[in-house]
Task: inverse folding
């Protein structure tokens, strides 16, 4: 589904994009070493992009990563014979998007997902009228274009929307659209800013989904880098002339450190900073929101669903397994559907057993396709909220967030401590491309200091 179709388009990062093609080609060339070292905390796409750029310039770069593999929120599980992307799946708008060229270089195969290839069902398995569906979608875009004019700093999107459109609040189709078009992209509607819900930029062009795994890009970027896995950083001491980083009880030192851990990890105070981070950064860490989206892949021996790209279902409960991606469209040999839970319902699923989750998903599918459909053969699922390496899915503009907070998150401290990651990218926060651009941005800052 197209994210942020209602948002503005911008090529503000054209200069950064122009810089990106050289990345990685350089790791095969000899460089005149710069006698400076950099530790990067986190081997997600932002950390890997920064590392490649710095290595290309001759810095000595070490990445400390707490997980057992590189990639962070670019994570693909292939245990069911198909790449299930637990984090990012789509390249959102392929035109001028740095992920487009990275995907080509990395060998990430992609498939165009077409929104118009869809069927929508109401409770009781009643096929929804396509015109009505389309009209509601158009009406939502109109509302999203203007709701901020009635918004204010103290009230959530939900409060303002419900006051303006009380008839929509309990309408199942509206609940579906708000959930899959707004909450999925941003965060919990009762916490989402009524002023800033549509901030952020978007690339033009079609949407493409990764076929052989988004981690293909992470693996490509990690080539030739010194990535130390299973290294959990607990302390960053930048009181001296070098920065001292404590990980697994060991202390490593470098001239510069780039912190790329997710906003959820910063919110959780998982890393102690000495001295404490500036008040403006601490405030921004609190004020910018971190949402939760969970993904579920189910496989069957035989397919029973419509031969379309998207199947939507409009249950009473918002944010609950209301949208199914027909994975068989791009993996014809596999009978699989991918579905989602968002915001508070996503968090609730993390306490549910696999059997409970399957039961809930199957109740929606049975309502659409009948009680005789087969039980799934297997299921894979995510638990992003309780993942101590993320504590959530991606950042969003919550009540209390100001756009300047994204710049505060990106602000370097004492020209020694630098910050990258999707949550530091004011134009493209919450995306893989935003994270990538943030890594290049911070590498450039360090390069410019030489
Ligand atoms: C469910 C979901 C769906 C998404 N869908 C899309 C999509 O379709 N398209 C899109 O463009 N984007 C999508 N995104 C967003 C995208 O995946 C992220 O914005 C991007 O991958 C973030 O990269 P990053 O480098 O900022 O952070 P990360 O990838 O999270 O990297 C940070 C790294 O830091 C490590 N770390 C954490 N704590 C420590 C510690 N104490 N010590 C050492 N290392 C630590 C983590 O393990 C991680 O590897 C999605 C994300 C999620 C979760």
Result:
């Amino acid at each position: 589904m197209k994210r942020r179709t209602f948002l503005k388009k911008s090529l503000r990062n054209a200069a950064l994009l122009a810089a990106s093609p050289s990345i990685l080609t350089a790791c095969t060339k000899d460089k005149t070493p710069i006698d400076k070292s950099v530790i990067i905390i986190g081997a997600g796409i932002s950390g890997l992009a920064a590392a490649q750029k710095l290595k290309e310039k001759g810095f000595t770069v070490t990445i400390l990563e707490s997980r057992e593999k590189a990639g962070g929120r670019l994570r693909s599980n292939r245990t069911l014979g198909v790449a299930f992307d637990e984090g990012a799946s789509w390249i959102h708008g392929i035109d001028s998007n740095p992920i487009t060229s990275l995907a080509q270089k990395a060998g990430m195969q992609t498939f165009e997902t077409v929104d118009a290839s869809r069927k929508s069902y109401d409770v009781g398995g009643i096929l929804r009228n396509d015109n009505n569906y389309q009209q509601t979608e158009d009406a939502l875009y109109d509302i999203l274009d203007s709701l901020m004019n009635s918004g204010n700093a103290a009230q959530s999107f939900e409060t303002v929307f419900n006051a303006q459109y009380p008839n929509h609040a309990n309408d199942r189709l509206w609940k579906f659209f708000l959930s899959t078009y707004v909450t999925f992209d941003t965060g919990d509607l009762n916490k989402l800013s009524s002023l800033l819900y549509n901030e952020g930029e978007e690339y033009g062009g079609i949407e493409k989904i990764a076929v052989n795994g988004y981690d293909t890009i992470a693996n490509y970027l990690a080539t030739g880098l010194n990535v130390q896995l299973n290294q959990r950083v607990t302390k960053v001491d930048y009181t001296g002339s070098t920065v001292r980083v404590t990980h697994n009880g060991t202390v490593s030192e470098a001239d510069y450190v780039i912190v790329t851990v997710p906003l959820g990890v910063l919110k959780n105070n998982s890393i102690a900073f000495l001295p404490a981070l500036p008040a403006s950064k601490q405030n921004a860490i609190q004020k910018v929101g971190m949402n939760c989206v969970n993904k579920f892949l189910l496989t069957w021996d035989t397919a029973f669903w419509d031969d379309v790209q998207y199947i939507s279902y409009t249950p009473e409960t918002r944010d609950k397994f209301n949208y199914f991606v027909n994975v068989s469209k791009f993996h014809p040999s596999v009978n699989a559907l991918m579905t989602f839970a968002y915001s508070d319902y996503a968090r609730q699923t993390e306490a549910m057993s696999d059997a409970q989750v399957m039961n809930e998903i199957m109740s929606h599918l049975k309502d659409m396709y009948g009680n005789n459909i087969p039980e799934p053969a297997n299921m894979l699922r995510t638990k992003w909220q309780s993942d101590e390496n993320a504590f959530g899915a991606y950042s969003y503009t919550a009540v209390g967030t100001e756009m300047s907070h994204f710049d505060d998150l990106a602000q370097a401290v004492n020209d020694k401590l630098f910050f990258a990651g999707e949550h530091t990218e004011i134009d493209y926060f919450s995306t893989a491309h935003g994270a990538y651009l943030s890594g290049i941005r911070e590498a450039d800052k360090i390069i410019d200091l030489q």
Summary: The CA atoms of residues 184 and 398 lie 14 Å apart. The longest strand covers residues 293-300. The two ends are 44 Å apart (CA to CA). DSSP finds 13 helices and 23 strands in the chain.
